[in-house]
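worker-03 picked up job from queue 'complexes'. Input manifest follows; two sequence lines, order preserved.
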Amino acid sequence: MAIKLPIYLDYHATTPVDPRVVQAMLPYFTEHFGNAASRNHPFGWEAEEAVEKARKQIADLIGANPKEIVFTSGATESDNLAIKGVAEMYREKGNHIITAVTEHKAVIDTCKRLEKEGYRVTYLPVQKDGLVNLDDLRNAITAKTILITIMTANNEIGVIQPIAEIGAIAKEKGVLFHTDAVQAVGKVPFNVNELKVDMASMSAHKMYGPKGVGALYVRRRNPRVLLAPIIDGGGHERGMRSGTLNVTGIVGFGKAAELCQQEMASDTERLRKLRDRLSDRLHKNLDEIYINGTMEHRLPHSLNISFAYVEGESLLMGINDVAVSSGSACTSASLEPSYVLKALGAGDDLAHSSIRFGLGRWTTEEEVDYVADKLAHVVTRLREMSPLYELAKEGVDLSTMQWQAN
Amino acid sequence: MAYSNKVIDHYENPRNVGSLPKEDPNVGTGLVGAPECGDVMKLQVKVNPSTGVIDDAKFKTFGCGSAIASSSLATEWLKGKTVDQALAIKNTDIVTELSLPPVKIHCSVLAEDAIKAAIADYKKKQGVTVEQNADRHAQPTA
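worker-03 finished. Artifact:
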């Protein structure tokens, strides 16, 4: 089978909409276009019915009650609503929030804003494997702690935090627990009761649904979580999120959730094999490549590798028919190397040399082989022109060099 | 990011990749940048002692495509120039030639630094007093 180029291996960034999802959505653009809040005519009823069906499909995927699903515009909004909503609602109880340094910016920057408003935030470090230390978490909790927000799976390195253990600690201490579960929901088993999660952020476009729609799971029992809304208006979504519902998007989100639930086991097995094949093939052809984050607790479709002595952007240039991401400063808007990789303590140079691979529903073995072989070729070529590789081969310890930074 | 055709050409067909013997008294070596910043350039010149003209130039670069292109271009320009002519190469010349966007100007600055460091090293070997601040290349501390 001929390979179609370019190859997409950036499924952490976004996913294509599954054609079955598109089919489910189409009637809601034209035929059933009603406003789900129109209570007095069939157009509204049809829309509401479709929304409620989707709410159930999503709730089923995470073991929740449909009433616990609040639709939003995406996971960034969900993170904002959970964190700011708890902060405002529980202000009298305390002003302390615990998160981790490797969280998504939607969580980190929300916490930073709250700090300006007088809240205190603890940013837990992560270990070399990318996971938070549970003793650090326990020690960080004070009488003033109102919220722990730790992501389930990391968007850059794919590691899965010990969510059930964190949930148990939060419960024991009577602190609310929010998790940004965007990368995990639909990909790996995620049950809000087994994990003792009080709030969870999700996004449709990371699971073969459309962009522009997400949800926040908000626990209704043991405990009942109360959130101050961040968007005021018509009181939709039980007052937690005003604004006319994105019915087509929500229908697509629901269908995507249903498909993920049905196909999770087979997708997981297939993708883990492909991911391991990619890793094995790279390791076979190249020395001094390092996997970032633990392989033991990781999304099955995720791989992040640093190719020592080679800079990430130049590597991407050499594989310009493959869509992947790099932690290199040159590829980021901020011109800073990945803060997630820096947090692992591997050294900035390895952050600059990293590539994130995200496999997905339509990734094939041929594509994986093509990418692995092409990368091996490009890395070898770039190392031949790398002064760092030359020095290392001469036996110079690069960490003892005094560099003239510009 | 869209690269100019010249950057792509230097990236795909880099000129003068390699190394010259570091201990040769007629070879000057410049090593600038830092791995944690994502750019390291090694640039070497070999000067003909009787004419003072740069006979050969080689580079190795760890960095983005623009950094590779800047150093590759620098070696092309260095060959055939006298030491003083080489010192007249400005980073802005590189920016213009490669159509580097503003975020990549530092790559050209690094290439200029590498030229200056290589020539300073050569002059030092020749016993010429080097003006302060020109000796910018990295050294192992041990």
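worker-03 released lock.
The CA atoms of residues 276 and 356 of chain A lie 14 Å apart.
The domain at 7-12+264-375 of chain A is CATH 3.90.1150.10 (Aspartate Aminotransferase, domain 1).
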